[in-house]
Amino acid sequence: MSFPIKGEHLHKKYKNQIVLNDVSLTLQEGEIYGLIGPSGAGKTTLVRILLGLEKADSGKIELFEQRPTLNAFRSLGYMAQSDALYSELSAYQNLSFFASIQGLHGKAKKARILEVAKAVELDKDLKKSVAQFSGGMKRRLSLAAALIHQPRLYLLDEPTVGLDPLIRKKLWTLFHYLKEKGATIIVTTHVMDEVAQCSRVGLLSEGKIIAEGAPKALMQRYHVSSVEDIFIAMEKEGAKK
Ligand SMILES: Nc1ncnc2c1ncn2[C@@H]1O[C@H](COP(=O)(O)OP(=O)(O)OP(=O)(O)O)[C@@H](O)[C@H]1O
Q1: How far apart, in whole angstroms, are the C-alpha atoms of residue 164 and residue 158?
Q2: By residue range, what is the domain housing residue 55?
Q3: At residue 26, does pLDDT exceed 80?
Q4: CA distances, 145 to each of 79, 86, 142, 201, 237 (Å)
Q5: What is the CA angle 81-56-42, rounded to 5?
Q6: Based on the domain organization, do 113 and 157 belong to the same domain?
Q7: GO molecular function of the protein, one example (predicted)?
């Protein structure tokens, strides 16, 4: 078993606010790990630290069982919570920019842009300027940009916010497809039916991962019949500690 990401004893404070208090997290190859928790719990902060975009105050990170290098970070696929797109450019130009950064050129680049645009159903909108895109289209374009270099590891921060149920379902089909092909995905979400589709779930609350496991196993452990109830039971347990 290989571990695409390992974070050990991570601590993070903003001024006097403790956001991460000794968080350890190990992702297994080929799993979809759902990171859940109340708003402001530190999910984005944890993802950004794992990605190398933010520095932990202390703790250790390994990427593919090695100390992370800049190149290793480049090989990750990241979809931020707010879309990092160039609105004055077309969707095609945006994808072309991200593809070039990743070293794709010429015919291979063009083919890959069409492939990822199809995967998120934006292939007919590639010529449009991003300024004319809806919120959901921007989310999908951000995802396409994260897919462009076929990374082995994806960090997706609330990838389906603002998307209609049909597109949401299609994106999850895509996530499962990526997983089947061997990719590992860490995804933050507040949507319970998405949580149910994760291989494992971790609940971050008050700076700690207070529960972790497969959704079914967690339902058994907390004697509840829905993922939503796990969330509530885990939170209650966390509050008692
Ligand atoms: N750069 C920063 N400077 C100061 N405080 C910050 C910074 N980034 C995050 N925080 C604070 O850290 C806490 C955790 O934020 P974070 O965005 O990681 O939470 P989250 O779990 O992702 O929330 P949500 O579910 O609402 O997206 C919040 O209280 C936030 O205000």
Answers
A1: 14
A2: 5-75+152-240
A3: yes
A4: 8, 12, 5, 25, 39
A5: 40
A6: no
A7: ATP binding
- Distance, CA 141 to ligand 1 centroid (Å)? 24
Whether 42 is in the pocket of ligand 1, judged by its Cβ within 6 Å, is yes
Whether residue 14 is found in the same domain as residue 119: no
Does residue 44 fall inside a structural domain? yes
Across the range 138-149, mean pLDDT stands at 92
Average pLDDT, the chain: 90
Residues 67 and 90 in one domain: no
How close is the Cα of 151 to the center of ligand 1, in Å? 26
pLDDT at 83: 78
Phi-psi region of 155 (alpha: psi -120 to 50; beta: other; left: phi over 0): beta
pTM for the structure as a whole = 0.90
Instruction: Quote the number of domains for the chain.
Output: 2
Nearest CA to ligand 1 atom 1: 14
**Cα 43 to ligand 1 centre (Å):** 8
Q: How far is CA 115 from the centre of its chain?
A: 21
Residue 45 Cα, ligand 1 centroid: separation in angstroms?
6
Q: Model ipTM? A: 0.96
Residues 9 and 55 in one domain: yes
Which atom of ligand 1 lies closest to the CA of 48? 18
Long-range contacts from 181-184, C-beta under 8 angstroms, 24+ separation: 182/29, 182/30, 182/152, 183/30, 183/151, 183/152, 183/153, 183/154, 184/4, 184/5, 184/27, 184/28, 184/29, 184/30, 184/31, 184/32, 184/33, 184/152, 184/153, 184/154
